[in-house]
Design goal:
CATH superfamily of the largest domain: Band 7 domain
Number of strands: 5
Largest sheet: 5 strands, antiparallel
Radius of gyration: 28 Å
Number of domains: 2
Low-confidence stretches: 40-57, 101-105
CATH architecture of the largest domain: 2-Layer Sandwich
Mean pLDDT: 78
Shape: elongated
Length: about 180
């Protein structure tokens, strides 16, 4: 009988040690996960979005413009002191000439329209890129989570150029992101 009590006490002691060991492993895992998230993740990719589709549906006026995509993505340092950078591909819906609402001529074939858009945009691309870079460089990781606000800031900056010289700079109807990577 004494042997049964001794065996029962030893197995209880053994299961208590197993439970204590499991708790210790869980605590160590939680602490190591916290340390990894807190200190390692800021040096790794924070947000990756490809082909963003969370944009609102375009209005009828936006559909009446011409789509222009910058040939090169924008790669900029962010305003964060943590040395992150942003890589984003930007496309613009540009108002057609001859109409304040963007509803210009629509009877051109697509080849002619593309050539006309290229001839309008090519000389001003450096100025537009500079304006977009200016907006993007002011962003932080936390402000980039609101992509609609960033798009709006880009649109405002580009339309300020239009207000300064409407003959040279077309009005921007909408801004779209196709690639958006923060590292």
């Amino acid at each position: 009988m004494a042997d049964k009590k001794a065996a029962s006490g030893a197995s209880g002691l053994m299961s208590g040690r197993i439970v204590a060991g499991a708790i210790a492993v869980a605590i160590i895992s939680a602490l190591s996960s916290f340390v990894a998230i807190r200190f390692a993740l800021p040096k790794q990719i924070v947000v990756i979005q490809k082909n963003v589709v969370e944009t609102p549906s375009p209005t009828q006026n936006e559909l009446q413009g011409d789509l222009w995509s910058f040939s090169d993505p924008f790669i900029v340092n962010l305003a964060d002191p943590s040395h992150h950078f942003l890589k984003v591909s930007v496309s613009l819906m540009i108002a057609r000439p001859g109409s304040a609402s963007g509803q210009g001529k629509t009877n051109q074939d697509s080849g002619t329209a593309a050539k006309a858009l290229a001839s309008r945009m090519t000389p001003i691309v450096p100025v537009f890129r500079d304006a977009v870079i200016g907006v993007l460089r002011r962003q932080t990781i936390s402000t980039l989570y609101d992509q609609d606000r960033v798009k709006s800031e880009i649109k405002v900056a580009l339309n300020l150029l239009h207000e300064q010289d409407a003959d040279q700079f077309p009005r921007t109807l909408s801004v779209y992101f196709s690639d958006f990577v923060i590292q």
